[in-house]
Design goal:
Distance between the termini: 30 Å
CATH class of the largest domain: Alpha Beta
Order of helices and strands: EHHEEEEHEEHEHEHHEHHEEEHEHE
Largest sheet: 11 strands, mixed
Shape: elongated
Strand order of the largest sheet: 2-5-6-8-15-9-14-13-12-11-10
Oligomer: single chain
Helix content: 25-40%
CATH topology of the largest domain: Aminopeptidase
Radius of gyration: 22 Å
Strand content: 15-25%
């Protein structure tokens, strides 16, 4: 794990014209107040940028990567290391592109119809790579700062990465910078690309941006469920209504939001595994154990946030039978549908369609106007009227 540097140990690197400097920080040493302030100042931030999410990820997956967070300061404040002085937080980590343990710890997060990064640039398995922190489970990543600081933050980060490796991260320099989950609408992407391009010729770098994957998103004009259904493709609309009616013949369909406690997490895991088994997130493997630790820890941390929490766990019942479980995040008028589980023995009730419909209807009534199905092009998402929004990969390689 990275240790906190003292002011005398901290390498200060900056472009002549850059008003900020980037300083390596242990994740544990970043003041929570600075994190929350930076998060609130970042329009592109999502629940994946919350302190709770990163804390839970490192508590579960610390053996799989090394944190390499940076904080940005004005040059005169770089030794202060306090919450007020921090102008930006840049969540990074490093590891080999492929580690020997990856095959044992891997789980199937989503079941896309095509591989992520189809046709993406190949990187050697043994390359030392710098990623956005918590990349595997994160659908969106960004830099945490006020938008007006983005150019200076990007310059400070790239200047730091152009320098020699610091002692806390060993004497081997990076082979690739492989930043993923960056949205095209996020101004952090062009800011970082421009900053890397400015130094590319001097350092012999190749800088490329490619589409990594898509996140299908439903955008709603208003909060009327029937109007939303009417906007769907005729065939999809007919099937949804038919399956809802068939379930209603058995019992009332109800969506219930649960407290994010251990019992709710275990109920979700049970239904997820009932549907996916060894192909799911929580099989009886080392990877499944890590996934359980992560989701339980995230629920524990989010529960402690009280009314400020973002994590949402829900269940759908038909009569008294639980047929569907959800894990999602709330942020303003957006709902992020993170994962689900369903009862495969309830085929007569079409748990996937019935459960998703109940979830959507409840969230629409709660004021949601964007329903984000997150990463992956699973076919069912488009039946709900979702439209692809790309996420990008910024790749820097040495010639």
């Amino acid at each position: 794990m990275t240790t906190r540097l003292t002011a005398s140990q901290t390498p200060i690197r900056t472009l002549a014209a850059s008003p900020l400097v980037a300083v390596p920080f242990a994740f544990d040493a970043i003041p929570r107040a600075a994190w929350d302030r930076s998060l609130a100042a970042t329009p592109a931030a999502t629940p994946f940028s919350r302190w709770t999410y990163h804390r839970a990820w490192w508590d579960a997956y610390s053996a799989t990567a090394h944190p390499q967070y940076l904080c940005c300061f004005e040059p005169g404040d770089a030794g202060r290391h306090d919450a007020v002085a921090i102008r930006a937080i840049v969540p990074l980590m490093h590891r080999h592109e492929v580690e020997a343990e990856d095959a044992q710890t891997a789980t199937t997060f989503r079941h896309s119809d095509v591989r992520s990064s189809p046709g993406g640039a190949a990187v050697p398995d043994d390359a030392k790579a710098i990623f956005m922190a918590a990349s595997y489970h994160t659908d969106y990543a960004t830099l945490l700062c006020d938008p007006t600081d983005l150019p200076a933050v990007a310059d400070a980060v790239v200047t730091y990465l152009a320098g020699p490796p610091d002692a806390d991260h060993g004497d081997r320099d990076w082979d690739v910078i492989d930043l993923r989950r960056l949205r095209g609408s996020d101004p952090a992407l062009p800011a970082l690309e421009a900053a890397f391009q400015r130094l590319a010729a001097d350092h012999g770098w190749d800088v490329t941006v490619e589409v990594e994957d898509v996140c299908p998103v439903v955008t709603l004009a208003d909060g009327d469920w029937e109007a939303y259904l009417s906007s769907l493709d005729k065939k999809a609309r007919h099937e949804i209504r038919r399956k809802i009616r068939r379930a209603e013949d058995v019992g009332e369909i109800r969506f219930e939001m649960l407290e994010p406690d251990a019992a709710a997490v275990d109920a979700f895991i049970a239904l997820h595994q009932a549907r996916w088994g060894a192909e799911g997130l929580f099989p009886d493997t080392p990877g499944g154990a890590l996934s359980r630790r992560f989701i339980h820890r995230l629920a524990e941390l989010e529960a402690a946030e009280g009314s400020g929490r973002s994590l949402e766990l829900g269940q759908v019942r038909v009569g008294e039978r639980i047929i569907f479980a959800t894990v999602g995040f709330a942020s303003g008028a957006t709902c992020y549908f993170y994962n689900a589980g369903m009862d495969p023995d309830a085929r007569d009730l079409s748990p996937g369609v019935t459960g998703t419909a109940a979830y959507l209807r409840d969230r629409i009534a709660a004021g949601v106007r964007r329903f984000d199905f997150l990463r992956g092009n699973e076919g069912y998402k488009y039946e709900w009227g979702a439209v692809d929004e790309p996420i990008h990969r910024l790749l820097v390689t040495r010639r």
